[in-house]
Amino acid sequence: xxxxxxxxxxxxxxxxxxxxxxxxxxxxxxxxxxxxxxxxxxxxxxxxxxxxxxxxxxxxxxxxxxxxxxxxxxxxxxxxxxxxxxxxxxxxxxxxxxxxxxxxxxxxxxxxxxxxxxxxxxxxxxxxxxxxxxxxxxxxxxxxxxxxxxxxxxxxxxxxxxxxxxxxxxxxxxxxxxxxxxxxxxxxxxxxxxxxxxx
Length: 199
What we know:
The protein is mainly beta.
């Protein structure tokens, strides 16, 4: 993966974490155990510290950055969807940031919250635990149900399983020129189908 030391600070990736080879890590970045960092993600610890705590995932084309002296943090089991931008904020334990959402400086998305796709979370935003946050600018719409939280947790478990799959089975290769006859799908040949939580 493109990994760069800056001013004597080298990114840290726990041995049980998976960081895609196209993701970029710069400077003061700490990726904890069982984390997943997707293709083309950018973790820029060139001003402030970037932290993914245990079991967190940061998906394709996400950006994490912050101001000097600050931390941008995804807490334990945090889940950040494709294309989201996190700048100088904190994503609480077991919270979800939807695809293409933006969370700004000093915002704190509380534990077990869901921020909807494309939401814009203003600087300094705060909310109660287990809230649904939507809109631009984002506002708390209502409390999350236990069923909605369970749905989020199943998705996070899928990414934790994907971390293991990528570490053991992802292989760079040239593409085929055409699909083979009887081509299997993910879920065939012992591959667990998408959407089924691991035991």
